[in-house]
Amino acid sequence: MAGRGPVPGRRGELARFVTVGAFTFVVDNTVWYLLKLTVLVEHPTTAKGVGILVATIVSYVLNREWSFRERGGHQRPHEAALFFAVSAVALVVNVIPLYVSRYVVGLQRPHVDLVTQEVADFLSGSVLGVALAMSWRFWAFRRWVFPEGVPETPKGAPRP
């Protein structure tokens, strides 16, 4: 199925998905750092989870309306339930590297200095965790949430 814009098909979907991901990466990290440096100082994995949750809500709207629009999708309640179920798995996948870095490897204060802790948090939570979760989401969104074979919604018509 042809994609919208200059890049057709699956590559177009991937390009749009990555663009949405880049935007929600900023949303996630902004919320995460605001919380972990203020009200959730002692709970960085909780702060990361909240950041991911906020970014997931933004991601649903952008992916539904732009990244996978041509796929038709399911009726919205069903589509939203699938989207958030896939995203719940992705949240766990995303937080595991941060949890391991902090609590298994011990890359947190007082065992390491603040700079080492923050670099380890960023690399584990925002690089490795995001990469793993993004791979899962792209595959699962195409497979279950926005599958091909569902009749397209005519341009300009509201989606079911």
UniProtKB/TrEMBL annotation:
GO terms for cellular component: plasma membrane. The keyword Nucleus does not apply. Residues 16-146 form the GtrA/DPMS transmembrane domain. GO terms for biological process: polysaccharide biosynthetic process. Keywords: Membrane, Transmembrane, Transmembrane helix. The keyword Transmembrane applies. Its main location: membrane. It comes from the Bacteria. It is a multi-pass membrane protein. It is found in: Membrane. Pfam families: GtrA_DPMS_TM (PF04138). The chain crosses the membrane at residues 14-34, 46-62, 82-100, 120-139. Signal peptide: none annotated. Belongs to the GtrA family. This is Putative membrane protein.
